[in-house]
Amino acid sequence: MRRTVVAALVVLLVAGQPQPALAYLKFGVTIGGNQVTLKWAQAPVRYSVSTQSAPQVSVADFQDAVARAFNTWQSVPSATVTYQFAGLTSALPGRDDGLSVLGFQSRPDLDRVLAATSFLIDRTTGALVESDIFFNTAFDWSVSPAGTATRFDLESIALHEIGHLSGLGHSALGETELRDGGRRVLAAEAVMFPIAFASGSIAGRTLKADDIAGITDLYPEADSTRTSGSISGRVTKDNQPVFGAHIVAFSVARGTSVGTFSLGAQGQFSVAALQPGVYILRTEPLDDADLDSFFDNTRTVDLDFRVAFADRVVVVPRGGDSGEIAVKVVRK
Amino acid sequence: MRRFARLAAGVAALSMIGAGAAHAQSAPAAGWGRIEASFGGMWLGNQPLGRADANETTPTGGALKIFTSSSELARAAGVEGRIAVRVLGTLEAEVQGSYAVPQLKVALSSDSEAAPNVTAIEKVQQFTFGGGAVWYLPTRALGTRLVPFVTGGLGQLRQMHQDRVLLETGRYFQVGGGVKGFLVSRSQGFINGLGVRLDVQALVRRDGVAFDDRGHASPSVGASAFVRF
To answer: Does the predicted TM-score (pTM) go above 0.80?
Structure first.
């Protein structure tokens, strides 16, 4: 078995290579010239917890916090992914040992990385073999139910990282402002937004519609393919395809948003695992996070266009697709 | 004054046209005949569907508004038909159906990144099937040729989105009144009456393309021709 380790520094940095397919942003690998979505082939996904503790976070506290985060993901009714605690281990995250390990590590050199997820992939099938998550003890952590003002909420960050461990890439559903040479999150509507809320916040413990659509797209429950639908279309500017546009499908009935990107050569996009109903499409340039949080090749991402709404209502059918929606944007 | 004079003349003409065909026997308040079929046009007023903000969650759990949407099912013309059966002297039970193609409009505004305001639109095919009752008011103030009535009904609502990709179901309730003008009214023969029916109603539609489970009211006006058997 040939194996490749893909390191993904997450939360504040890049999260690996997105699959340039017409779908929700997922990780992908090229196997025999074909793009294969990175996902677990077997269930439950077994994980171990490192015996390394951190200041004010015991191993038991850590284990409980990550168990809550795993449970949040596997409680999504439309998805089949499940996880199982395999026990404590002295092994450290990031080792090529066949164990998926979550634990603390001291990485003061990564002064902008709260946590990171790495993968071990079977290069013959594209299946995930192992995925490790380390939490950087260069930062202060909290497992308090109400959060702690000066510490980052472990459960929230674990929820994000476990999204990566499951195969999800980053979402762009968030607003930021530049401050002190970095970005501060004003708001986000996806746990998988690449930049964490400030210390003290526990708002990241709850999955949003975007996260639920993503995990459902990766691990669909048998019935969900018949009960949900998708939107597909193309984004163009001056009749030329736009690569890397962020398209948000807003459900008027539910008040929820699910995002995707135009990743096809002709500016195609697709938003999958949507509940049937009426949607509004809003297209914006990807300017609220660093581009390399989403794409390896950032030079082809088009940012020179104005935010725009589609001028038609988009309807998602049960078990089908909206039909191609043409989104035309104009230069700034 | 001129408008009043013209209306009065119209009623008189209607009466004269019907007068020649009237039977000598005095007609019931609701006219002759037991079964009535009617078909005509209608106009539906707009149905507000409410506002919804697209929000994102702030670090404290609050909401940051990205844009606002305001939706309505726009006013539209359509067709409607009824078959009624007299069950009492002044009471009819009827089945009714209608078809219209209103536009679903979603106005988008107040975008946080200054996206131009847009109204997103689609056509919705709307079908209704239901039943109701018509009660003829016991008044002869308008004479035997013009018969006022009150009506109420309820039924099923089917709304098909544009491109026929999704069918939404719901219910409707309506209450209102109107007047029937008899051009022909007679007690013998296959056809016992011909005339025009005018309706003004409050229509409450629930579910269907609406984004919540509340009822949404709108006015409705109809004009149809009827025949009595």
So the answer is: yes
